[in-house]
Specification:
Radius of gyration: 13 Å
Largest sheet: none
Structural class: mainly alpha
Helix content: 55-70%
Number of strands: 0
Strand content: under 5%
Number of helices: 6
Length: 88
């Protein structure tokens, strides 16, 4: 596998290699499940990520805070894959 330092994680999903998919699989499933929504929140803005998680995606403040903690554990490359896996 190509090292993540050399892996271009700003590519759209249609251009991903097996290494991109392997890195994407290291992202916790609960985050991958809402990756498209995370992209839309980042792209379109709204009330802020934690607010959107609580009020529109997960339903409780506790779940939103836990998700924010998990999102904070992602590497920059993992974050890039989430946001570049979807197109506007």
């Amino acid at each position: 596998m190509e090292t993540t330092a050399k892996l271009d994680t700003f590519l759209m999903k249609k251009d991903w290699t097996a290494d991109h998919y392997a890195l994407y699989e290291t992202i916790p499933e609960q985050i991958r499940d809402i990756a498209g929504d995370l992209f839309e929140i980042r792209w379109y803005g709204g009330g802020g990520l934690e607010w959107e998680l609580e009020h529109n995606l997960l339903g409780t403040k506790e779940k939103a805070k836990n998700m924010m903690i998990e999102l904070g554990k992602l590497t920059a490359h993992q974050n890039n894959l989430i946001y570049h896996a979807y197109e506007a």
